[in-house]
Amino acid sequence: MAGLWRGCGRLLARRPGVAQALTAGALMGAGDVIAQQLVERRGLRGHHGPRTLKMMAIGFCFVGPVVGGWYKILDQLILGTTKVVAVKKMVLDQGAFAPCFLGCFLAITGAMNGLSVEENWAKIQQAGRRPVCCHRLELLPLLESKSDVRWKPCPLPCLHAA
Predict the structure, then answer these.
(1) What are the CA-CA distances from residue 91 to residues 73, 94, 117, 145 (Å)?
(2) Which positions of the chain have pLDDT values less than 70?
């Protein structure tokens, strides 16, 4: 196990993009296995191997390179290591990158599952209309390194699909 860990460290140092792609593919494959076995309860005989391989391919070819590249860009755009810098990066990541990434991810996944362009677009639009309810985590104590983190109800009403 220690040799595997050292090998991963060497790969990360020499070829960070390859290491990120391999990690993303492995995690997406593992996530699909967990989904099929624990959530969907398919069992070993009912496991859909091609689906797991598709998810791994998306991780290798799309998620790893895109997310790794985005974090490099984000580190160049916002310099520093303070808590305020971390919050700025999180806001930019969740407000700008995540919606674009999710749209592309859904389009790629749909295309790999054989959906037509029209079916894929309808599915992406449907994903954007699902009911949204929020809860606001009061972050100020967390940012001040205090352990008094509290949940507060979101001041916005729940938004439901029209």
Answers:
(1) 14, 5, 31, 19
(2) 127-162
